[in-house]
TrEMBL record:
<dbReference type="InterPro" id="IPR044861">
    <property type="entry name" value="IPNS-like_FE2OG_OXY"/>
</dbReference>
<dbReference type="GO" id="GO:0051213">
    <property type="term" value="F:dioxygenase activity"/>
</dbReference>
<comment type="similarity">
    <text>Belongs to the iron/ascorbate-dependent oxidoreductase family.</text>
</comment>
<keyword id="KW-0560">Oxidoreductase</keyword>
<dbReference type="GO" id="GO:0046872">
    <property type="term" value="F:metal ion binding"/>
</dbReference>
<protein>
    <recommendedName>
        <fullName>Fe2OG dioxygenase domain-containing protein</fullName>
    </recommendedName>
</protein>
<dbReference type="Pfam" id="PF14226">
    <property type="entry name" value="DIOX_N"/>
</dbReference>
<dbReference type="InterPro" id="IPR026992">
    <property type="entry name" value="DIOX_N"/>
</dbReference>
<keyword id="KW-0408">Iron</keyword>
<keyword id="KW-0479">Metal-binding</keyword>
<dbReference type="Pfam" id="PF03171">
    <property type="entry name" value="2OG-FeII_Oxy"/>
</dbReference>
<feature type="domain" description="Fe2OG dioxygenase">
    <location>
        <begin position="216"/>
        <end position="331"/>
    </location>
</feature>
<dbReference type="InterPro" id="IPR027443">
    <property type="entry name" value="IPNS-like_sf"/>
</dbReference>
<dbReference type="InterPro" id="IPR005123">
    <property type="entry name" value="Oxoglu/Fe-dep_dioxygenase_dom"/>
</dbReference>
Length: 331
């Protein structure tokens, strides 16, 4: 095993695997490091310079207004349906990653789920330890980095995972801070995902229910990422560059920012390529067309997608992202 491989020990005696295991055994996550008062991040979280040195031309050369102009915003109410369908098709063909407003998910519910996730992560350590597991058979689980022992560098985040469909967990399995809101939020996010799938179907000239009939929204996972303050934000990431291995992701971010998406140069925007900020838009939800849906749609839309996201630390405060992911039925 080379020193560059996950879990490798260096010639100087640094045992990465041992440090990973010691961190995981605390069951306190990244928040536990922050609470312990770390002033420098452990080596397991340090990313190689190449993964941090990304082209962020769009992010630095126009601010939020320029970024907002690149990321489409689709208004789901008010306009005639054919106009909404046209907006959806344009957004899917140009970027495949867009924000939706007037989407039907109450603002109070979005605020409540963010508040609940925040209270869980900032609440008693023993409650988090009870939920901490790497057993993927559990419908509700808390951990830090699902790929902790496989990735080249860990991300600075903790995650609360809830599998809500096709069979929801018993309410008592949900941590108390989210017990009264998570199932309701999951139902609302599912309705929105189904609406997006319906509009995408119609934009292709297909019956509105076609994608739903193909099983694109039978399962639902709500994945809530908590990003604590980082003492050395230039050395790590909240989320490494990735694509979403699902049908549709409905993403709720708080007002902190940091989320970026890669324009691959194949769609609109003059064929330009680079990372662009996705500035928080009050009341909006973000829709990301996932890998599995792209398989169904790539032969139908004129533009091939490469929808890659990551979260860079540009803050000293904590950040929250809640992702409702439509996935294949696992039962």
């Amino acid at each position: 095993m080379s020193a560059a491989e996950p879990g490798a020990a260096t010639p100087g005696g640094y045992d990465r695997r041992r440090e990973l295991q010691a961190f995981d055994d605390t069951k306190a996550g990244v928040k536990g490091l922050v609470d312990a008062g770390v002033t420098s991040i452990p080596a397991i979280f340090r990313h190689p310079p190449a993964s941090l040195d990304l082209d962020t031309t769009y992010s630095s050369s126009g601010g939020d207004d320029a970024a907002a102009a690149i990321i489409p915003v689709v208004d789901l109410s008010g306009a005639p349906r054919e106009e909404v369908v046209a907006q959806m098709k344009a957004a899917a063909e140009s970027v495949g990653f867009f924000q939706v407003v007037n989407h039907g998910v109450p603002g109070e519910l979005m605020a409540a789920v963010l508040s609940g996730v925040r209270r869980f992560n900032e609440g008693p350590l023993e409650a988090k330890r009870r939920a901490y597991t790497r057993d993927t058979a559990r419908k509700v689980r808390f951990s830090s980095n699902f790929d902790l022992f496989q990735s080249a560098a860990a991300n600075w985040r903790d995650t609360l995972f809830c599998e809500l469909a096709p069979v929801p967990p018993p309410p008592e399995e949900l941590p108390e801070p989210i017990r009264d809101v998570m199932l309701e939020y999951g139902e609302a996010a599912t309705r929105l995902a189904l609406r997006v799938l319906e509009l995408l179907s119609e934009s292709l000239g297909l019956p509105g229910g076609r994608l739903r009939e193909m099983g694109c929204a039978e399962g639902l996972n709500v994945v809530s990422h908590y990003y604590p303050p980082c003492p050395e934000p230039d050395l790590t990431l909240g989320t490494s560059r990735h694509t979403d291995a699902d049908f549709v992701t409905v993403l709720l971010q708080d007002g902190t920012g940091g989320l970026q998406v890669l324009l691959d140069g194949a769609g609109g925007n003059g064929g330009r390529r680079g990372w662009v900020d996705v500035p928080p838009l009050p009341g909006a939800l973000i829709v990301n067309i996932g890998d599995l849906l792209q398989v169904h749609l790539s032969s139908l839309f004129t533009t091939p997608w490469l929808i890659v996201c990551f979260l860079r630390f540009a803050m000293v405060d904590r950040c929250l992202l809640c992702l409702a992911r439509a996935v294949p039925c696992s039962s």
